[in-house]
């Protein structure tokens, strides 16, 4: 019982801070996406491709969450966007306080899109509100089609699923259609994109979705 009470109060404090962040982002007309996925599903690859396609017209900032390294923020900076790396020192998710401190270092008046890459796992990040407009699960086909059924919280709390690595389908015993079906079984409201970041396929619809969402924030 005691454990449950403590966890509740921590989440409540986070929710209050996330609410403040959301108001701040809304005041600045910024679209905020929280990317959740297993390690290696392709979150950073998707961010790199998004910057390459939208970066000329859209001012993008990226908060990177990783247990230890700065590797992902270095990749994002090389791709052409400003990025702040948060190291959780082994922690399994980002929280609103971490994101708040990071975004204080961005010029929010010069930002259209804020992408938050959460720590790679499908459990903890789902429970922590970061003030985002949408939670995006990046689901790699190579991980199997059963992940929405095994980790439903990530998918029920998300608005979007980007199925990545569809180029691997000929080499795998699973299909993109199966993964899509399982995601929609868990959450029929999901918007689903099928992409290969490696081959740059399927990214037009993803980027158009972002453009349309940014337009609603202005
Ligand atoms: N075949 C294939 N490989 C991909 C694709 N997208 C990413 N990868 C590879 O998958 C690996 C992981 O990609 P990342 O973008 O680092 O994945 P991540 O989700 O950011 O990983 P973490 O931050 O460590 O959780 C890299 O070796 C990428 O080159 C894809 O569409 N197809
Ligand atoms: Mg990454």
Written account of the structure:
42% of the residues lie in helices and 18% in strands. The chain has 218 residues and is an alpha/beta fold. It has one domain (2-217): P-loop containing nucleotide triphosphate hydrolases (Rossmann fold, 3-Layer(aba) Sandwich). It starts with a helix and ends with a helix. The model has no long low-confidence stretch (mean pLDDT 96). Guanosine-5'-triphosphate is lined by residues 37, 39-45, 72, 120, 164-165, 167-168, 196-198.
Brief sketch in words of this structure:
This protein has 218 residues and is α/β, with parallel strands linked by helices. The chain is built from eight helices and seven strands; from the N terminus they run αβαβαβαββααβαβα. The protein has one domain (2-217): Rossmann fold (3-Layer(aba) Sandwich).
CATH superfamily annotation: P-loop containing nucleotide triphosphate hydrolases
Strand order of the largest sheet: 3-2-4-1-5-6-7
CATH fold type: Rossmann fold
DSSP strand tally: 7
Q: Work out the strand percent.
A: 15-25%
**Which term fits the overall shape?**
globular
Q: Can you list the ligands bound to this structure?
A: guanosine-5'-triphosphate, magnesium ion
Key descriptive features of the protein:
218 residues; alpha/beta; Rossmann fold; 8 helices; 42% helix; binds guanosine-5'-triphosphate; binds magnesium ion
